[in-house]
């Protein structure tokens, strides 16, 4: 089983619908992230969380919200989806408590969202 | 501001040929530098990383990268490419706090027989 699991892997929805992407991890890491990948733009950070009580906006948080339900779970919500939110979304984790915190990220397999 | 530039959007090499993917970064101090690979339909996987010491670092799958401070570069190399290396490659820089990763736009590698 994957250490970082994302559900759903693929989703097609309509403009205005509420969508939730879920992420769970078994790595025991404290930090979790949501990234968005668009062709030619690389990965851009949407939100990140350093622990259950800590949520921070990334560079493109508008139109998104998150919830850290437990150390192992971090969900991303689109309250009212719009077509330009069509993208590949990645959840990632990192371990700040490692011997040397270099920020290495461990990724899920991605959730492809299409908004019609 | 921190930034990462990968000048090549895509590169095509023949199987067995050598490979070099370019990466330039902008950062005030010595950053932590990473190369990740994304195979089709997969998440990103770490190839190698540099944070101190020897400027030539070895990674998985026969890849290596060299940190050149004077050129603000961290180019990825492989002496002989295999068809399974076809993927997208991302260079990334992390601040010294270890919590903010900036990714380049990626370079897609095509391997021809």
List SSEs of chain A in N-to-C order: EEEEEEEEEEE
The average pLDDT score of chain A comes to: 92
Residues in β-strands, percent of chain B? over 45%
How much helix is in the residues of chain A?
A: under 10%
Mean of the pLDDT scores of chain B?
91
For the CA atoms, what is the radius of gyration of chain B?
13 Å
What structural class should be given to the helix and strand makeup of chain B? mainly beta
The percent of residues in helical segments of chain B reads: under 10%
Shape field of chain A: globular
Keywords:
heterodimer; A: 116 residues; mainly beta; 7-stranded mixed sheet; 4-stranded antiparallel sheet; globular; B: 113 residues; 6-stranded mixed sheet
What does this structure look like?
- Chain A is globular.
- Chain A is built from no helices and eleven strands.
- With 116 residues, chain A is mostly beta strands.
- Chain A starts with a strand and ends with a strand.
- In chain A, β4 and β5 form a beta hairpin.
- In chain A, the strands form two sheets. In chain A, strands 2, 4, 5, 6, 9, 10 and 11 form a seven-stranded mixed β-sheet that branches.
- In chain B, 0% of the residues lie in helices and 52% in strands.
- Chain B is mainly beta and 113 residues long.
- In chain B, strands 2, 5, 6, 10, 11 and 12 form a six-stranded mixed β-sheet that branches. In chain B, strands 3-9-8-7 form a four-stranded antiparallel β-sheet, with no helix packed on it.
- Chains A and B meet through β5 and β9 of A and β5 and β6 of B.
